[in-house]
Fold this protein.
Amino acid sequence: MILDLDIGNTLSKWRLKDADSSEIRSRGAVWTREEWRPGSDIPDLDVVEAVRISSVARRAVLEETVSLLRRRVGAVHVARSAPEALGVTNGYEEPGRLGVDRWMGTLACYQLAGGCCSVDCGSAITVDFVLPGGRHLGGYILPGLRLMKESLKLGTRNVAIDPDSEAEELLGPGTRTVEAVNHGIYMAAVSAVNRIYSEVCDREGVPLPMLLTGGDARVISRGIQVPHAVWPDMVYAGLEACFPLTAAERAGRMSGAPRVPSPVSLEKIRAGLAFSMLL
């Protein structure tokens, strides 16, 4: 089995993948912490032959996790942001300071779609762009839905947005405080993503396919105005591309890869942007 770990600042997600069939056998998530207890927080390591890790948590968390795994597992692969990988040139002035989850997502999207806009809807919402040819432009970091709600300190943090809610409902005025908060932060998030996408595509003169991942991708997806796809395994797919361990991965097949959405024309993007500026 292959254990893939996506360690975030708040939540650490894992999955077990069959090394022979490339099938996903199980998944889970735990709160990120510095001390890990085998058998409780992570799968049975006796069945694991290799581990791949993407981590944006504190250095102590990563070091403790790697130390534990190397005592139990033969091969441990840790992803790092690099100046260039898999045909993509990192757009950061200091490439190592780009969050590795963003780097993994960007690499996965480029392998799938070429030029692309990758959006990760987690504790923070990140939006990254790669042009056809592999030049990463850099990106944007916004507070995520939960972070925005907590910042208001109105006692509504435990009332989450229903991911099955329709965008029309969430974009309307709230008639209770909790609704006003939820609808306000939703409007802020989707408006920002829509505007960022249009502005960058207009400036660069190219419409790009958009791919979303992260815990809030499903609900944010409902308010995105351009064709897009949700790819829950985007970060894992970046690990697969960087450290291919199965026959399917070596052949370039990434887990859960969606059909690449066809972007609208640049003319439509510019028309929509011009209209929004008139309002």
